[in-house]
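Supplementary Methods, section 5.1.

A reviewer requested that the exact input to the structure prediction be made available. We therefore reproduce it here, unchanged from the version used in the analyses.
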Amino acid sequence: MRAWPYATDKASVLGRVELAWASLDEVVERLSDVEMGQAGPDGWTVKDHLAHLAGWNLSLVALLESRHRQAALGLEGFSTTDWDGQNEVMLRRHRVLVADEVRALLLGSRVMVLTALDALSDADLVRPYREYQPQDPRTGPPLSSDQPVVRWVIGSIVDHVAEHLDYVQRVMESHAAAARGLGPG
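The structure derived from this sequence is encoded token-by-token as follows.
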């Protein structure tokens, strides 16, 4: 197992989380409700991506509070690694939300993440995932249950926000180019 290259103390982790959220906010705060409804080539709208991030924030909260992650999202029966299936169900549930509801869901999920992280110590962040989720026997890629839970915090927020922020920016650029008559949108 490769060594974790980042600081694992709570202050450092919170700093990385806040930077990720700030980078997302910088883009999202400029979007109108119409722009939030614009879709990319896969059919997901900007608000779909934001609701998706909020849903996985709630999953992270359940993880950190040692609650069953799939049950917390109403996804009982799904494999803990069936992300496509879980994402599809969450997409159908959240698609009906209007932009302001998605913004509120995202904000509320962040408050819950911060509350869950606040309850942890530096030592808690390096405890293995299996201690938080004993019913989830992850044994392989991308992460095993023996790895520290901080990897899920960073993956679920920092890495996940970067992935979806890139998508949102590409959708917005594509629609802006189409509005200028420069390509498909």
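The mean pLDDT is 89. These observations are discussed further in the main text.
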